[in-house]
Amino acid sequence: MPHHPCAPPIGDAGGCIMTASVLQVLDRKGHHVTTVREDMNVADVARLLSDRRIGGVPVLDAAGVLVGLVSERALVGALSRYGADFARLRAEDVMMRNVPTTSLDEDIVAVARRMTGRRARHVPVLENGAVVGLVSIGDLVKFRIEEARHAATSGRNYIIGNTDHAA
Predict the structure, then answer these.
(1) pTM recorded for the entire structure
(2) Which residues form the CBS domain (predicted)?
(3) Is residue 165 part of a domain?
(4) Residue 95 to residue 73: CA distance in whole angstroms
(5) 1 found inside a domain
(6) Could you count the other beta carbons within 10 Å of the beta carbon of residue 125?
(7) Strand partners, 70
């Protein structure tokens, strides 16, 4: 495992938080990202989210530019507001606009802070203006847990002198 510098602690917990980039998260979870067009019917978007077991999807315009994000939360809210007319809606009618985004090299602690502040569970990853990934708060938490487990195992192996499994 490469050495990671410390990031400032979150809140008043103190201590050191090991940093990692969005690229490292995507390398572990996969770079595939599902997107939809802004004119896609919301029932089809809901079916896509369900079939792929994902909680959000970036919305692109006809030129492939990010214009929003449709989340499960947005779909439930639209269903509640529009009732029977829900099936007539398009992605652009329910999507979150001005979506927070991130880059491949951004530190995941900074991304998590922004997601928490904006109450965004999903953040598109952009490279040169193109959507190249999507990270969820769950992806970031899972990555941090795996990193902590790896660090604990490496530390334990170092202390007991077991170098067979050291990083």
Answers:
(1) 0.77
(2) 26-86, 95-153
(3) no
(4) 10
(5) no
(6) 23
(7) 57
What is the distance between the alpha carbons of residues 45 and 130, in angstroms, rounded to a whole number? 21
Number of structural domains the chain divides into: 1
Question: Among 10-14, 32-36, 147-151, which stretch is predicted with the lowest mean pLDDT?
Answer: 10-14
Q: pLDDT of 98-143, one tens digit each?
A: 999 999 999 999 999 999 999 999 999 999 999 999 999 989 988 7
Q: How many C-beta atoms surround the C-beta of residue 22 within 10 A?
A: 24
Structural domain boundaries enclosing 88 = 6-160
Outline where 30-120 has alpha helix (H).
42-52, 72-82, 91-94, 108-118
Cite the beta strand spans of 19-155 per DSSP E: 36-37, 56-60, 66-71, 102-103, 122-127, 130-136
DSSP 121: S
CATH number for 26:
3.10.580.10
119 CB-side CA count, 13 A: 3
Give pLDDT tens digits for 23-65.
999 999 999 999 999 999 999 999 999 999 999 999 999 999 9
In order of 10, 45, 122, 123, 143, the CA distances from 116 in angstroms are 12, 25, 10, 11, 17
